[in-house]
Design brief:
There is one protein chain. The protein has about 170 residues and is α+β, with helices and mostly antiparallel strands. It has four helices and eight strands. The chain has a single domain (about 5-165), classed as Cyclic phosphodiesterase (Cyclic Phosphodiesterase, Chain: A, Alpha-Beta Complex), CATH 3.90.1140. Strands 2-1-7-8 form a four-stranded antiparallel sheet. The chain has a four-stranded antiparallel sheet with strand order 5-4-3-6, with helices on both faces. A hairpin with a 6-residue loop joins strand 3 (about 65-75) and strand 4 (about 85-90). It starts with a strand and ends in a 6-residue tail after the last strand.
Length: about 170
C-alpha cells in the first residue's frame, strides 16, 4: 500500500535554503523530504483508493481561496517531540482550515498531536543540534502565496515525491 502525505510546498529559493540548512545541521532525512507545511501526515492508502483521494483533494482545492503565508523565526515542540521548526506567523488559520478539510472523507485520520502548521528544520537530533537550529534560524523570514498544495507519495529510494498539485481558488484581492 502506498504511503501518502499532503502538504503546501515552500517555494524557491527558500525551499532549497531550508532543506540545505536541515542537512547541514545533521538531519540527513532532509534529502528525501521536500520543504513543506504538512496538511496530512504520512498515511497508508490502498492503490485502489488513490483516485478517490485525488477527487477529494481536487474538491477541497476548488473550495478554498489562495492565501498568504509568512514564515518568521523558530519554534520547537520539545520536550514533547525533538523538532525545531520555522514558525508560520501569517496564514495559520488558513492552514488549519485547509488541513481540516483535507482530513475528511477518504483521508479522515486521527492525529497523534494537535495540528500546528510549521516548517520542520531539525528532527530527531541531539539537543545541541536542535539548539543550534533554533538559534541560527531565529532571524529567518519569507513570504509567499499559498496558491496550491500537493499530494506526495513515498518512494523507498527517492523519498517523498510530489505526484499531483491542486490549485486553490484565485483571489481577487
Amino acid at each position: 500500500m502506498p504511503t501518502i502525505g499532503v502538504a503546501v510546498a515552500i517555494p524557491e529559493p527558500w525551499a532549497t535554503e531550508l532543506q540545505d540548512y536541515r542537512t547541514s545541521v545533521g538531519d540527513l532525512t532532509a534529502t528525501q523530504i521536500p520543504t513543506h507545511i504538512t496538511l496530512i501526515p504520512p498515511v497508508e492508502v490502498s492503490a485502489d483508493d488513490l483516485p478517490g483521494v485525488e477527487a477529494h483533494l481536487a474538491a477541497v482545492a476548488g473550495s478554498v481561496d489562495a492565501f498568504r503565508i509568512h514564515l518568521r523565526g523558530t519554534g520547537t515542540f520539545r520536550p514533547v517531540s525533538p523538532v525545531v521548526f520555522v514558525s508560520v506567523v501569517e496564514g495559520i488559520s488558513q492552514c488549519e482550515q485547509l488541513a481540516l478539510a483535507v482530513r475528511r472523507g477518504p483521508l479522515a485520520v486521527e492525529l497523534a498531536f494537535p495540528y500546528h502548521p510549521h516548517v520542520t528544520v531539525a528532527h530527531h537530533l541531539a539537543d545541541a543540534q536542535l539548539d543550534r537550529a533554533f538559534a541560527e534560524l531565529a532571524d529567518f523570514e519569507c513570504e509567499f502565496a499559498a496558491d496550491h498544495f500537493a499530494l506526495y507519495v513515498h518512494d523507498d529510494g527517492a523519498g517523498w515525491q510530489p505526484t499531483r498539485e491542486f490549485a486553490l481558488l484565485a483571489t481577487t484581492a
